[in-house]
Amino acid sequence: MGDTEYRNVRLTEDAYQRLKSRKQAGESFSDTVERIAGERSLLDLAGIISDDEAEEMREAIREQEDRSRDELDRLADRMDS
What we know:
By secondary structure, the protein is mainly α. The protein folds into 2 domains: 30 residues; 34 residues. It is built from 3 helices and no strands. It starts with 12 loop residues before the first helix and ends with a helix.
């Protein structure tokens, strides 16, 4: 067996239940904490792209939404015919 050190951590019942709900099959609580602690926050992404690049992305998303909406309208019209 390895030289793994263990620590006790006190959690409120609410915190325990939230952690338990994130636990995956076959995963220990330590595994769950390590997985969650390694997740990136959206705040980590702040400043990665410029305001201009962000606006270009927003515009591309809007255009795609418009195309999708138009296509759905065409399909609905064909179904109504």
